[in-house]
Amino acid sequence: MEFSSKLLENAVYEVSQLPGIGKRTALRLVLHLLKQPEERTTNLAKALEKLRGAILFCKNCHNISDVALCEICANPKRDESLVCVVEDIRDVMAIENTDQFKGLYHVLGGKISPMEGVGPQDLTINSLVAKAKEGKIKELIFALSSTMEGDTTNFYIFKQLDGLNINTSTIARGIAVGDELEYADEVTLGRSILNRIPFEVSLKAN
């Protein structure tokens, strides 16, 4: 792809680094921005810069937040004895949209995936186990995607909890195998949370 401007080429390159965006799509987006009022492009740039520089991660659940303790963890009406383990913020948003879960979350920041070089030490598993040892958690719900990586991560955490008096469950398989939570419809996801099953039962099923 030939460019008449190095500035244009650089902008297209940076946009094309976003997931799911090729160079042709990136070019359309950049040309669209050039047609907009300068203020709109400037506001976008400022918003991204502020996002990158000021965003925080909740000190309790590791969810993305504007403050040290996210709104969910700070809400006294949430059940702190019930914790839902998810991969990232998109899963938190998906489950929250169902309005069926009233506990807290723990965001792992990914899944164990040796193929991608992601091990337990790269996730927030240690802080989850530490919280579990404090004795406040009565049930952990594994709500990772039903993929090999998700199942491996669930099992690893399950083994780390050995000897602790904590119930473990997993969302019901209303979510198709291989599906990501963020793409599940709210009704199906909500029912999967409500109809969760003991994790040990899911192990026998596999």
Write the layout of secondary structure elements.
Layout: H1 6-16, H2 23-35, H3 38-54, E1 56-57, E2 64-65, H4 71-74, E3 79-86, H5 89-98, E4 103-107, H6 125-133, E5 139-142, H7 148-160, E6 167-170, H8 186-194, E7 197-198, H9 199-205
Parallel strand pairs: 3-4, 3-5, 5-6
Antiparallel strand pairs: 1-2, 6-7
Helix pairs in contact: 1-2, 5-8
Short description:
With 206 residues, this protein is an alpha/beta fold. It has helices at residues 6-16, 23-35, 38-54, 71-74, 89-98, 125-133, 148-160, 186-194, 199-205; strands at 56-57, 64-65, 79-86, 103-107, 139-142, 167-170, 197-198. A hairpin with a 6-residue loop joins β1 (56-57) and β2 (64-65).
Task: Tag the structure with descriptive keywords.
206 residues, alpha/beta, Helicase, Ruva Protein, domain 3, Dna Topoisomerase Vi A Subunit, Chain: A, domain 2, five-stranded mixed β-sheet, two-stranded antiparallel ribbon, 9 helices, 45% helix, 13% strand, elongated
